[in-house]
Structures are given as C-alpha cells and as structure tokens.
Amino acid sequence: MKILRRILATILVIVAALCWIGPAGVLYFVKTAPAVTRLVPTEPKDLSISQALGKKVSYFGYELEVPWSDFDESQTRVFPENNHDRQMAWICFRSGLKLFIVITPLETRFPEYEFLKSAYAVTPDKIHYWSLIQGWGYRDARFLLIKSTFLRGIGHSEGESSPAETGIFNLHSSGSNGFQYGDPRSRPDELELLIYSADSRVKIKVLQGGYDEPGGVSQPEINRIVQTLHRTSTQLAAAPN
Asked: Among 103-107, 217-221, 236-240, where is mean pLDDT lowest?
C-alpha cells in the first residue's frame, strides 16, 4: 500500500541518517521543519450535519450520502473494476465539484491510524537537546519527519501547497476514525478525508477548484459524508443509487 510504503521508506531513511548525524543534525532538522509540522489535529469547530437535498451512493461495498444532487453521470467513473488492492471512484457534479474516492484494504497487523495519530501529536517544540541525549527525543524526531513527509505529500498537484496547512481535524463516526486535511472556512481548492475502519482505509478528495459555489464546501456537508459512510458488504457496487 502506498501510504504504508511511504512510512516504511521514511523510517529507513531516518535510521540511516541517525547513524551519521548526532543531536546537532537532528536539531537542525527540527529548527527548519516546515510550518505544517507545528499543527496538531483538533476537533472541527462545527459538528452539525447538512440536511440539504442529497443522494446516496454505493461503491465497492461502502455507502455514503452526499449533500448534493446534481450528479453529472456522463463524467462519473469507477475504476479499476477488477483490482481488489485499491478501488476508486471519480464522482462529478454539474456544479464543477468533484469527489475522488479510494478504498484500500488494510493489513490489520499494522495499526496505521494509531501510528499517524502518534506522529501528528509531535511538534518541533517537543524536541530539544536534552531529550536527544536521553534517547527518547530520537523517537519524536522520527515521528516529526514522518509527519512532515506525509502532510506535505497531501495534495493533487505537485508544487501546490498542502491543504493540511489550513488545518488538520479529527474525524469520528460509528466504527471509524480518521483525519480531515484542510479547513473549509479557508476554501482551499482541495480537502482530503482519511477514514479508517477495522479492515480498510477510505480516502476522499474533495476537489473544489472549479466549484461554482463561492463559499465552497462547508464543514456540515463534510460531516454528512463522514457520518453516513458505512460498510454494506464485501461486494462491488459501482452505480449510484
């Protein structure tokens, strides 16, 4: 899985680097760490759920509600049809709004959500010289590098700023936990949701660069997607209801 490979590769780079550099090198990295590493996940300010006219959609054994009903079925795509390692749906609306959904089975032996949760809790101010001398600071330095690599990698176009720079938020629903990257109040062109259940990861990119609604997608609309997302079966179900 791409995210797991990214985490493992980052860990290998850290271990190799720490064999050659000491506390001074680590502290230099900490001092120059990107601003996004100073953010920690918080609860969304608005927990209300949009009651707007919407539609239920089902993909790959998951169902959710979207608070928009202007589907552009001519542009909506599901692929790849026979790849069970990663299943994707591209949902388009006539307003210019787009959703990109990726569902990936998880290796239950690796607690990816808990790992990211621990990494996101680390900020540069928690790492100092004495923590490195005592040893535990290196663990936090590893988490900080993983956090930096992961958060800066969120975004659909190379060179664009990460939506996480406008905020990182905790997501909770029945049987699921995850993160929201991007604050709707800042109207970034992209918002990303990463939602973990017991055996799978659901990534939802909300692409609103061409959305004709001036205010963009709201937090209550995002909450409706998150709170209605649930597993229905293990069967592929590709068509909107």
From this structure: 236-240
